[in-house]
Amino acid sequence: MAALGNRGTVTEASGFNPEEDAQKLYSAMKGTGTNEATIIEILAHRTIAQRLKIKEAFKQSVGKELFDCLKSELTGNFEKVAVGLMMPAPVYDAYELRNAIKGAGTEEACLIDILASRSNAEMKEIVATYKKENGKSLEDDVCGDTSGMFQRVLVSLLTAGRDESTKVDEAQAVQDAKDIYEAGEAHWGTDEVKFLTVLCVRNRNHLLRVFQEYQKISGRDIEDSIKREMSGCLEDVFLAIVKCLKNKPAFFAERLYKSMKGLGTTDSVLIRIMVARAEIDMLDIKAEFLKIYGKTLHSFIKGDTSGDYRKILLELCGGEK
Q1: Residues 8-50 pLDDT 10s
Q2: Rounded CA gap, 4 and 301, in Å?
Q3: How far is CA 175 from CA 9, 182, 195, 224, in A?
Q4: CA–CA distance from 273 to each of 23, 110, 146, 253, 255 (Å)?
Q5: Which PROSITE patterns did the record assign (predicted)?
Q6: Could you tell me which CATH class the domain 170-246 is placed in?
Q7: I need a surface site. Which of 15, 142, 170, 196 has the fewest CB within 10 A?
Q8: What's the mean pLDDT in 145-162?
Q9: What does the alpha-carbon distance between residue 257 and residue 300 come to, in Å, rounded to a whole number?
Q10: Which CATH code is given to the segment(s) 248-317?
């Protein structure tokens, strides 16, 4: 499995020895008490490909699943991070989506964060993995748990049918901008299907051009119009799509900021982004965070979390810069 991205804070450990790591983890968990420092040291400084090799070595030498041992030894948010780090990206995404859907109430933020930000290839892997892990289709589960236009946007994203070319059709871009304007700002009541057709199907370069045109026609940024025209989950998902198209690391930086500012921390969001992006674009997310909020992501995590949970997140965050 190749490295996930080249802008991560987590990179391949040199002189990697899976058997040695497996033994260290086993020693850290056997007997009474757990040596959390060793677990953090290993899990936060190995790539997912390396962690999977450790998992194999652990099973061979100990005769138990590392995943199960971590679950039984650790608790709370620290456990959630450690367990998340043991899953390949599509498996983790599928696992998070399943947790967001099952149980009482749906964590719409999770559906939005994942489905609005993944590429077609990533989406196809998530859909296939979900089916394999749960024996049910992700689309069926999403449809069983959401409704209306919000559901239709999620289903469209799940088809992984976005044009991923870089071609900009000038005439079409002008027409798309006009269509969205007429479906929203210039219209009594909003025709959301028009937004869906343009925002969920066209390629990124084309849409960036559409947003420029839209600004010209309406005198407003597309995000402002979405906020004026829509509400609730539908507003959230369309905003997430637009933000991810404009600047994905900035989208995640904002999600992290909102998960920590004010009273209480939305740990589910914080954990999901730190685990999922550590090996992909965490360096860019940190840079955007500093640029937008004037404070480091590191300082926010430090001030908002505690204990081993804080320690492992700070390692994934990778240094104060």
Answers
A1: 999 999 999 999 999 999 999 987 778 999 999 999 999 999 9
A2: 24
A3: 41, 10, 13, 20
A4: 29, 10, 23, 9, 8
A5: ANNEXIN_1, ANNEXIN_2
A6: mainly alpha
A7: 15
A8: 96
A9: 8
A10: 1.10.220.10
